[in-house]
Every structure is written in C-alpha cells, then in structure tokens.
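Batch 3, record 17
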Amino acid sequence: MNQKSGRPLYEQLMYGIKEDILLGILQVGDKLPSVREMAQRQLVNPNTVAKAYKALEAQGIIETVLGRGTFVAMQLSGDVDDRQLQIFKQQLSELLTEATYMGLTEQKMQALVAEWYGGNHGIKSKQFSEND
Amino acid sequence: MNQKSGRPLYEQLMYGIKEDILLGILQVGDKLPSVREMAQRQLVNPNTVAKAYKALEAQGIIETVLGRGTFVAMQLSGDVDDRQLQIFKQQLSELLTEATYMGLTEQKMQALVAEWYGGNHGIKSKQFSEND
Amino acid sequence: MNQKSGRPLYEQLMYGIKEDILLGILQVGDKLPSVREMAQRQLVNPNTVAKAYKALEAQGIIETVLGRGTFVAMQLSGDVDDRQLQIFKQQLSELLTEATYMGLTEQKMQALVAEWYGGNHGIKSKQFSEND
Amino acid sequence: MNQKSGRPLYEQLMYGIKEDILLGILQVGDKLPSVREMAQRQLVNPNTVAKAYKALEAQGIIETVLGRGTFVAMQLSGDVDDRQLQIFKQQLSELLTEATYMGLTEQKMQALVAEWYGGNHGIKSKQFSEND
DNA sequence: GTGGTCTAGACCACG
DNA sequence: GTGGTCTAGACCACC
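Prediction for the assembled complex:
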C-alpha cells in the first residue's frame, strides 16, 4: 500500500481485489481474507479494509455473510450502462490527453491497450488471496 | 465547470486548457485570458484559476511573463520519460479494469481509443480561449 | 435460509415459523421439529435454532415442555397494545418512505397490502413443519 | 437520536432526511447542515453523519460539492426496479406478519397506510433543515 | 471467529 | 469553512 500515491488506501485495496478477480486469482465464491487479517497484511487499519469491502459490496462485486466472512460474488454484466459509459469516456479522454502530452502516439497507445488485454498485464503475485 | 464531479475545479481547468491546445484551438504563443477574466468566465474563484495556471506552468505547458500575461509555451516532447510511463501504465491498467467491470470488451475499448484520436472527439467550442 | 440477506438467521427462522402458523400449516398444539432436526433441515447451527425457539417462546407463540418437545401455543390477541402500535407505526412509516423513493404510489401500495392479505401470498410449502 | 432503538444511528439520520424531503421541508437544491453542524445538533460523531451523507449520495438522493457542502439532489424516479420490488415485498410481508400477531386486521392496516399517505403523518418539526 | 457500528481525534485538499 | 481519509480502540451481534 502506497501511502503517498495520492490515491486513498481503500481505493487501492478495491483495485487490487478487482484485478485479482479479473486475473482469476480470486474466483467466484472464494473467501476473502477477514477484515482484520487483510488489515494486518496490508499494514492498514481494519476500518480502511472494511470501507473497501463495503464499497465493493455496494458495487455487487463481493458479498458478506455476517459472522462468516466476505466472498467473491460477481460475474461481469454483459450490457453497458449508458450513464457510466459517458463518465468513462470522459476519464479516457483525460488519460489520452495526458498520454499525448507525454509523447505517446496513437500507435503506442493501442499497443499498450492490447498489451494489457493480452498479457494479463504481467502476471502479478497474489496480493490479496492466499500467500503474500 | 462541473461542481459535483468530485474532481477539483483546478484540475478540470487544466484539462480544458490542455485539450484546447491539442485541438489546435490554442496555439503556441497564444495569450491565455488573465486570471481574473478566466475566473469570471468559468464562474470560479480567481485563486482556483491561479492554481491551475501555476500547475500548468510547472509542467512547462504555459509560461507567465510578468506584466504581460500568460502564454502557451509547449510543444510535445518526442521521447517518453520512463518513470512517467510506468505511472501512466498503472493508471491505464486501473481504467481498463474498471472498463472490464462495466462490460466493455477489448474491441469496444480499442474502438473508443481510435475514436478519440480520429475524431477530435466532436469539435467542441473554444472553452478557454475566446468566448464562453 | 438466505445467508447474505443481512438479516440474522434466527430472525429468518422466527419469521418462517410465524408465517407457517398464519398460513395454517402449523396449528395450535402441533409439535415443532426438535432443535437438532430443524438445524439439520435448515443447514444452520443448532444454537441458531435454539435462539429462535427461545425468542418465540418469549413472545408466547410457542411453548417448550421439558422432555417432550416444542409446541405451537398461540392464538392471536384481539386487542392491540398501544406501545407496540407506536413502534409498528414507526416501522410502517419507514417502509412507506422507502417505497415512495422506489417510485411506488399509494394505489400500488394499497394493492400490495391487499394482495398479501387476500392471496395467502402464493401457497408456499411447509417450510418448518414436515419435510423440507 | 435514539441510541438504544437497535437501528444504527446513521440509518436513523438517513431516514430523517428522506422523510424531510418527502414532507417538503427540504427541497431540491437546499443545502443540508454541514457534517460538523449536524453532528453537533444530533449529538453524534461527525463520522456518523458523514457515513449517512455518503450513503444517501450513493442512493442519488443528495450530492456533495467538495469544499462547499451537501445538497438535496433528488427527484423521485417514476419506474420501479424489479429486484428492489422483490426485496420490498419481502419486507412488507414480514411487517404484515408482525402486524397480524399484534392483532391488527386488514381493515385497520389499510387505514394506517391511508393515514400515512393522507396526513403527512402528523406534521413533524424540521429535524434536519433550519431550526431545530 | 466474523463483520458492523460508533467515538475521538488527527491531517489533508479544496475553495 | 467544507468534506475526505485514516488511525486507534471500543463495544456489539451473529455464528
């Protein structure tokens, strides 16, 4: 967890878990580490983990069973929400603007996108599931 | 300026100016509106505009000449900074992760990227140069 | 038993038994399954069943005869406790508030209430008496 | 705020605000008391108020403008989400079951519902807007 | 053991 | 002044 990256810790946690699910490291039905355990592992406060878990639950990505734990719940929806798409396009536009200022060409950009989809973006270690 | 988008107003200003430059609405050497004028146009606090100008100057995109005004200074660098690229790839990865959860496929994604580069994303009015 | 509904399992058990009594599936004097048997059927911990039985007994709805078992004891009281009524009206108010935010009109609401009373809400199988 | 009602304080806050909007005490565009002020008024911790505000924002009922405050944002949607409706019917069923055990008849129940809709349920004081 | 709630108090970015 | 984030530590209900 990068304290000074500017991004909230709980968002970083959310991203890490989402990524692990996309990579297949976490599968539907798998149990996530308990709030306390995750907090210990990631060196953050349990409240911070709880906040991340709750936000993910609100997004329908995980589910919590009181007294039992938290579990991966999601399967990707096939249809795209239009309002979300507008927001996303705005974000993409800003990112591409930045990329252009960095000197990235359209070709290089397309290559980076393809790389992400193709290569499982670099086979990362299981941050959030079993062994750290 | 979208007050409730969650993004800081000064970043939105920065993005708008950067976009105008990419679109050719603002050219190298052009004079930007004064801080006060821009503030009035965009209905924000002058401090907010000043902050945006200062940040853009730090990025080498605009330049202030004391007593004369603020001018577009940049031309895109041809080579890519490696450290910046790493940060960028991280941001891209997060964006693509979100896109996947939204239900966007790789094809659709590539199409969106191509669209941004191709279409000047829809010929917008000069937000930050002439009139609002 | 819906593990992820957020409601405590023992409350769900209580509700199920109460409903069965209202529907006539369980009649006054009928014997309920033993704690162990119910636990096995509903795939919950025996402690959970015991807690539900105890709470129902406290409400005067069932009775335990030591060494013999647990029996349906209740008949509906004709008069309404005023303190209970206040609490109930509060709960109703909250439910109707939520309903309004969901977009339900008064007419639709009245229809839903009538439906519940009229239809025995769909003739369900005996969840908690005979076989599961 | 009733500490021992069993319901979380932040949910009680949410309900109070929703009710005030339905009653017209809070109108679209109105500013809510700041987190700190509301906390002081209701004698709860600012974090608790923040939690309530954030949950309401997630439901689209209020909106926050960073550094400016929190505002009423919503207008009721005309169409009813089917999944929500199922959950609601379940809650209604449980409430009506309890009502029956209390001795409430269908007629009395319909009267209570009509009363809530008709009478603005008793013209309450502005809990959450101007003066307390 | 699990997650949920609440408090107290700190620091920060934004306007 | 506003809300957002994070920590530390407490208590609770549920299983």
